[in-house]
């Protein structure tokens, strides 16, 4: 643990960080400051509160060192973009708001963070995380002051937070073997375009109503009718059907069966039914439409924007 907190300048701060990290890893259901301070020897609740809530040390080198140590140990097969939600009571926790809470499976008063996890068949570790700040907090001066939110912290859409984290990790010399995410992120055309622009391979779930073009579809510019006016711009001659309609028209040979890894087989047995991810993969003969331009309503023009 001393290696993780080596960038922290003061010895007493390193000791507090060591105590906090041990409290997280030791047995015990509750991971609050009060509960964790009572577990390791020499735990002090006030010291831990100051270490976490009023830090004078830079957390970025600590985060980077954790990534440098964990990536070789996990040897991830993918990086996972996902939400982490914490249900809350009251209004004074930072960024708390009525929003979808994945931990409860419904809309509730909670905090939501966007995370990037390195994951393998047997282990996972968060590499980066960003607290999602709802729009209502941007104009709530009273709560921002009480919770010490810096002025530069503003509302930022979840897909942008995900790309920000990938850029941070890339700046540390770390890149994913492949990025995976559920439909809350995969349906967003801007996220897909951002990953493609960065040269990052991805496997993203999409909703069945997302529109897509076959790979052989190409935008075509109609002939110019006269010398006056702008030249016609290329466009697809037919509306893009939904991915559900495209999949329904394909035969079984266009799909690939996915099987779970050794951890799933060890838990459920070799004769167990397929896990949730063992469903037909999207065939290679179908692609999502091109990154669309914003339409008049502020949407994406092709695929609905999710995860905002």
Describe this structure in words.
The protein is of the alpha/beta class. The protein has a domain of 57 residues. It contains ten helices and eight strands. The strands form two sheets. Strands 1, 2, 3, 4, 5 and 6 form a six-stranded mixed β-sheet that branches. A two-stranded antiparallel sheet has the order 7-8. The chain is elongated.
Report strand %.
15-25%
Q: Quick one: overall form?
A: elongated
Q: Fraction of residues in helices?
A: 25-40%
Question: Quick one: biggest sheet?
Answer: 6 strands, mixed
Series of secondary-structure elements, N-terminal to C-terminal: HHHHEEEEHHEHHEEHHE
Poorly predicted regions are: 270-308
Structural class: alpha/beta
Counting DSSP E segments of at least 2 residues, the number of strands comes to 8
Query: Termini, distance in Å?
Result: 37 Å
Mean pLDDT: 80
The total count of helices amounts to: 10
Radius of gyration: 24 Å
